[in-house]
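Ligand-bound model needed. S-adenosyl-L-homocysteine.
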Amino acid sequence: MQLDAAIALLADWGEPSYRSEQVRQGVTRDLARSWDEVTTLSKALRERLARELPFAELTLEEEQRSADGTVKARFRTAGGFPLETVLMRHGDRRAVCVSSQSGCALACTFCATGAMGLGRNLAAGEIFEQLLWAARIAREDEARIGNVVLMGMGEPFHNYDEVLRFCRLANDPAGFGLGARSIAISTAGWVPGIDRLADEPLQVKLAISLHGPNDAVRGSLMPVNRRYPVAAVMEACQRYRETTHRRVFIEYLLLQGVNDAPAHADELAALLQATAPGGFHVNLIVYNPTAAEYAASDPDRVAAFRAALVKRRVDHSLRRSRGRDIDAACGQLAVQGVRELRAARRDATRRPAPPRG
Ligand code: SAH
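Prediction:
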């Protein structure tokens, strides 16, 4: 979304400052889909904006609706990089899962996006457009977006500045107005990002994908563990807790026979208690099939794992992904995007200076 650019243009043209506010309102509150829909501006001004500045940077390629009410969008950037966004419905509540990158460099073995490799970072405006898309769909049934999670494609902390800029845009009380606590950033454990987030005034939630209680297990799943092993991630959590006093959410994907034994639960509990007693909430995640050769843990193994956590008084919940039938669930994004991403990457090397976040 070219909101800042539009506001700068209006100022250049000598328009009074309330025009900027009309644009901001039109885009973030009234959810206009084009400059022409910002009807508080004069027709002449709308036409001038439309001539000078594209309204959107992303092109919507496809919208799929799941039986459970989940809606997935496939977008492309101007340079052809694919990305996906998922709108989730939980009763009256709506949450949106946005992508921070096209593809991802971290290559976690269980994740479809990881298999794509990295396309490029998304700019704050490109992340914000995903939120606006979701808000427009929610509005169709008079609902509003209650939560945003940065859990789509990409490692948010590989694109730190644009991700934080996006969070501030979403939070702006004069604009979209979403509470900072309703925004969650999920990282594969990129320690420098955790440290930087601790010092931000914006109180967004932090979630860390751990998936294993020790280096042997985690390292077999997440190559990033070589760079930032479990102990380094836990030390970062400790520093984050000392600075912010906020809880950290730990994501733990249950993979049959890999990390789902009661002994793993005991080890996880001990690890978290040694780091910061009561400082964590564990989100257990049911594995969604990708091309990788893992299986979701059987219900009785999930129950045994949870029982071990209960015994050790570890606060936790089980996340059931939505939208599996349209490949919109955690880890399934971009099942089809690989070819597009490679083509866009080739194009980008031919083109002068691709847009960068
Ligand atoms: N890169 C960030 C955010 C994107 S992934 C991160 O790693 O946290 C959001 C969550 O979905 C992560 O916890 C990720 O590990 C999980 N996930 C990845 N593949 C999955 C799969 N196949 N099934 C279920 N969850 C998966």
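The radius of gyration is 21 Å.
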